[in-house]
Each structure stands twice: as C-alpha cells, then as structure tokens.
Amino acid sequence: MSDNTWLVVGLGNPGAQYAGNRHNVGQMVADELAARIGATFKSHKTASRVAEGFLGPGRPKLVLAKPNSYMNTSGGPVSALLKFYSLGADRLVVVHDELDIPFDTVRLKLGGGHGGHNGLRDIQKAAGSPDFTRVRVGIGRPPGRMDAADYVLRDFAGPERAALPNLLSDAADAVEAVVEHGLVAAQQRFHSPA
C-alpha cells in the first residue's frame, strides 16, 4: 500500500433496522465519503463492507470500511483490515458517535481512553494500540432520565434530522482534513469557535 493510504472506519450496527440510529452516524459519514469519491461498498473478506478511492489526483487514497459486526465487536474487523492493507494504527481514522459532545459538533482526537464507548474499547484491544485518530461526531446527551443505550439506538429526531446532512458533511470534511493536512491542522480548523 502507498504511504498515502488511510483506513477510515465508520462505526455502527449492521442491518436496516439500525441504519438511521444515532449510534450509526459513523457509517453515515462513511457513506458520505464514498459518495464524494464515487466508490461503492462491497463485501470484503475482512467481515466488512469496503469502498476504495482517491480524494483526487495526487491526493490520499481512502479505504472506507463499515464492519459487518455489531458496534461492540468492531475490533476484529478493524484488526483484519489493518493487516489486509498492511497499515498501522497511525493510518487508522475511526468515525463514531459521541454522547459527551453536543449534537452538530465534530471533534478530533488522537488516542486516549474509550470513555465507555464499547466499539472503541474493542478496537483498542484488537489493534493493540489506542493511538489512532478519532473523528467524534456529537450526538448530545439523552433527554431527562433516558438510558444512554436506548438513546443511541434511536433514530435522529425531527430538528436533528434536518441538521444531519450538514453534520455528516462536516465530519466528512474533518476526515479529509486529517488525511491531507494532519491532525493538528484539522483540529485548528474544526475546534475553533464558529
């Protein structure tokens, strides 16, 4: 693989019943990126659906992946993808939902703890390293006393649904910024006040 190849994994759960859930926002971002590079997801021997393409002539190659496993067991497919494409954790970008960030906000981070996110926990364990880039897509906290597990497995609500295309676009822009300009430059762009 070229030294300008990146594995971008959109986390979520498989199956149509989960497609619109807040927990699947990572896969929604992967779909947005695939549309931008004109690639189609296909079955892959790593227990994922994969789409590959370049951001443009002379620009980075993206290997976009949506694991076929449930969120909590994402590590196996991610580890298999890294091995298949001969990439290290330094070339891995994981896009996932984040309860601790307000809805419609994107934050970027390298390494760190999993914060109770079982998908991240499993990837850290399987990849043998916490040092991969995360594109954290804010979904906000559940209202009232709603259980977080119930909240993430519900579809985006009315006003959120209207804003969702912009959020997905921002998150896809953040992935592109990371792979083209590096994490620090991307953080300066996406973490600065609007």
TrEMBL record:
Gene Ontology terms: biological process: protein quality control for misfolded or incompletely synthesized proteins; rescue of stalled ribosome
Q: Which InterPro entries match?
A: Pept_tRNA_hydro (IPR001328), Pept_tRNA_hydro_CS (IPR018171), Pept_tRNA_hydro_sf (IPR036416)
Please give the catalytic activity noted in the UniProt record.
an N-acyl-L-alpha-aminoacyl-tRNA + H2O = an N-acyl-L-amino acid + a tRNA + H(+)
Q: What's the top EC group for this one? A: hydrolase
CDD domains, alphabetized: PTH
Task: Name the Gene Ontology molecular function terms of this record.
Answer: peptidyl-tRNA hydrolase activity; tRNA binding
Subcellular localization, as worded in the UniProt entry: Cytoplasm
Question: At what residues does the UniProt record annotate the site feature described as Discriminates between blocked and unblocked aminoacyl-tRNA?
Answer: 13
Kindly list the positions annotated as binding tRNA: 18, 70, 72, 118
UniProt site positions, description: Stabilizes the basic form of H active site to accept a proton: 97
EC identifiers of the protein? 3.1.1.29
Q: Which residues form the active site?
A: 23
Record keywords, A-Z = Cytoplasm, Hydrolase, RNA-binding, tRNA-binding
Task: Please tell me one Gene Ontology term that the record gives under cellular component.
Answer: cytoplasm
Q: How the protein assembles, per its UniProt entry?
A: Monomer.
Q: Which family does it belong to?
A: Belongs to the PTH family.
Functionally, this protein is described as follows: Catalyzes the release of premature peptidyl moieties from peptidyl-tRNA molecules trapped in stalled 50S ribosomal subunits, and thus maintains levels of free tRNAs and 50S ribosomes. Hydrolyzes ribosome-free peptidyl-tRNAs (with 1 or more amino acids incorporated), which drop off the ribosome during protein synthesis, or as a result of ribosome stalling.
Q: Which NCBIfam families match?
A: pth
- Name listed for the protein in its UniProt record: Peptidyl-tRNA hydrolase
Identify the gene encoding this protein: pth
